[in-house]
Amino acid sequence: MSETTGASYAAAGVDIEAGDRAVELMKEWVKKTQRPEVAGLGGLGGFAGLFDASALKRYERPLLASATDGVGTKVDLARRMGVFDTIGHDLVGMVVDDLVVCGAEPLFMTDYICVGKVHPERVAAIVKGIAEGCVLAGCALVGGETAEHPGLLGPDDFDVAGAGTGVVEAEQLLGAHRIRKGDAVIAMASSGLHSNGYSLVRHVFFDRAGWSLDREVEEFGRTLGEELLEPTRIYSLDCLALTRTAEVHGFSHVTGGGLANNLARVVPDALHATVDRSTWAPGAVFDLVGRTGQVERLELEKTLNMGVGMIAIVPADSVDVALTTLADRGVESWVAGEITDRGAHASGAELVGEYAK
């Protein structure tokens, strides 16, 4: 009579011990993100992350803001390059910089990492990047989930997502209700592609041009892979600092859809934002995507950030102090446009002129 072996979770491809090992490796990084409101409350490994809401008593009418996002197909580049400790910066930036658009201070985040097979050191590296991003954003990483999905994902495949919560005083809420005719549009430089448009970028460089990630690109001064994996800039603390030194009417986080579409989201119906392309020169990566893929400019502009990652809308008499504040914080910024009457304009924002060379 032949012996049979019963089914098991391990035989199905899920390694619980590897998951436990990953948790132990990531603990030191999560600890670095602690804020006073989470210190001593449970810690990593509990069923839920805790945040001491008594800290909100100083607000007269606190509004909680929430956002969730991922980083799209950029994770495929991280996997192919074997670099896992930067993609977390992208995740944090995509979440917290949505929160700060309404003036909210990011308080805490949770993450979700889905893998085909748990490689403890790899998962810990991803969490390290998320934790470093949280430190840059001033928020706590209070928990998360690592899910192993054998059969659905390949052994080296993974994806990441995150959710964040912030708070803003109701009277200080930013948005379209504050924006006025004559306001200035201040652009803040991006660090590169950030985390949007990678399906187009990958199609251009890999499918059409046949380039490899280790190709040295003269325009970048580094390899294609290094340029494409450049982490998303995190603006939340810079934006919050700006609200303390200058009058700010609104922000716009330039993500999927491009600069004009995202700016239009915060412009009231009766007004119009005009952005002058001649006020900046997009980085080499944007030009190279366009030339290599023969991508039309309007297609580029509705897909990529074109060198602008965040927009601040301020009254004209706050421009100088706003630019000084951002410069003091190491953020390249410039006046890129203005708010005018809507008139006959079909959309709430548009780009005009030609880019600087």
Question: Could you write a compact summary of the structure shown?
Answer:
This protein is an alpha+beta fold and 357 residues long. The protein contains 11 helices and 12 strands.
Describe the structure.
The structure is a single chain. With 357 residues, the protein is of the alpha+beta class. The protein has two domains: 14-43 and 56-169, 60s Ribosomal Protein L30, Chain: A (2-Layer Sandwich); 183-352, Alpha-Beta Complex (Phosphoribosyl-aminoimidazole Synthetase, Chain A, domain 2). It contains eleven helices and twelve strands. Strands 8-10-5-11-9-12 form a six-stranded mixed beta sheet. A four-stranded mixed beta sheet has the order 1-4-2-3, covered by helices on one side. Strand 2, helix 4 (120-137) and strand 3 form a beta-alpha-beta unit. Helix 1 runs parallel beside helix 4 and helix 3 runs parallel beside helix 4. The radius of gyration is 22 Å and the shape is globular. The mean pLDDT is 91. Residues 180-344 form the PurM-like C-terminal domain. Keywords: ATP-binding, Cytoplasm, Ligase, Nucleotide-binding, Purine biosynthesis. Pathway: Purine metabolism; IMP biosynthesis via de novo pathway; 5-amino-1-(5-phospho-D-ribosyl)imidazole from N(2)-formyl-N(1)-(5-phospho-D-ribosyl)glycinamide: step 2/2. It is found in: Cytoplasm. This is Phosphoribosylformylglycinamidine cyclo-ligase.
